[in-house]
Specification:
Blueprint: E1 2-6, H1 20-31, E2 38-42, E3 45-49, H2 55-62, E4 71-74, E5 76-77, H3 79-88, E6 92-99, H4 100-108, E7 112-119, H5 132-135, H6 143-163
Pfam family, one: TM1506
Organism: Olsenella absiana
InterPro entries: Cytidine_deaminase-like (IPR016193), DUF1893_TM1506-like (IPR015067), Hyp_TM1506 (IPR037081)
């Protein structure tokens, strides 16, 4: 699920990071390597995952991982992941796509936020409506309440898939105690 590595990751050359700006640049560079969906960098410390959605963040929250001092690059950041980042406490979060609500939440909690494209809302996988995980925290501002709402929505989605004869996606029901 999540990898903790020091030095080189995925063939990248290890180099001493001069500071937070270098950490964020390295996280962005590593994000594009080998299908990673989220990368956190602090000097030579690198945390990375290829899991989709909020799963890696839930895993880190449940494991008691602190991202203090880390700079994070994520593929897409909506309000739900932003609330989880508030619990993880990174220095900064960058994403190619970020919702306005996510930026507001991150900045309100003293976390730097950067993106290439800021959108009103994050769409679901089929692009037919809002992401169901983000929809679960529309009226939530407290990160702990957000965590509970996210876990509840993941349980609902897993139950709906099971009732429809499908199986939950790998890690969805159990990620970070979501079941």
């Amino acid at each position: 699920m999540a990898a903790r590595q020091g030095g080189a990751v995925g063939g990248s050359v290890a180099r001493a990071a001069a500071g937070p700006a270098d950490d964020l640049a390295r996280a962005r560079e590593l994000l594009d390597a080998d299908g990673r969906t989220v990368v956190a960098v602090r000097g030579d410390d690198v945390l990375a995952s290829e899991e989709r959605g909020v799963r890696p963040l839930l895993w880190w929250v449940s494991a008691g991982t602190s991202l203090e001092g880390f700079s994070v690059a994520d593929k897409v950041v909506g309000k739900a992941p932003a609330l989880l980042y508030c619990l993880l406490r990174p220095r900064a979060v960058s994403a190619p796509v970020m919702s306005s609500a996510a930026r507001t939440v991150l900045e309100a909690h003293g976390i730097g936020a950067a993106c290439e494209v800021e959108v009103d809302r994050i769409l679901n996988a089929s692009k037919t409506g809002q992401c169901p995980i983000d929809a679960s925290v529309t009226d939530v501002s407290d990160p702990e309440e957000g965590l509970a709402a996210i876990r509840a929505r993941l349980r609902e989605l897993a139950a709906a898939r099971a009732a429809a004869g499908g199986t939950p996606a790998s890690g969805t029901a159990s990620a970070g105690g979501a079941a």
